[in-house]
Amino acid sequence: MSDAHAPTLNPPPTPAQAPKIGFVSLGCPKNLTDSELILTQLSAEGYQTSKTFEGADLVIVNTCGFIDDAVRESLDTIGEALADNGRVIVTGCLGAKAGKDGGTLIQDVHPSVLAVTGPHAAQEVMDAVHRNLPKPHDPFLDLVPGAFGEAGIKLTPRHYAYLKISEGCNHRCTFCIIPSMRGDLVSRPIGDVLNEARALFAGGVKELLVVSQDTSAYGVDVKYRTGFWDGKPVRTRTQELVQALGELAKEHGAWVRLHYVYPYPSVDDLIPLMNDGLVLPYLDVPLQHSHPDVLKRMKRPASGEKNLERIQRWRDACPQLVIRSTFIAGFPGETEEEFQHLLDFVREAQIDRAGCFAYSDVPGATANDLPGMVPQALREERRARFMAVAEEVSTQRLTQRVGSTMQVLVDKAVGLGKKGGVGRSYADAPEIDGLVHLMPPEKLSKTYKAGEFVRARIVGTQGHDLVGLPV
Ligand code: SF4
Question: Is the C-beta atom of 213 inside 6 A of ligand 1?
Answer without folding.
Answer: yes
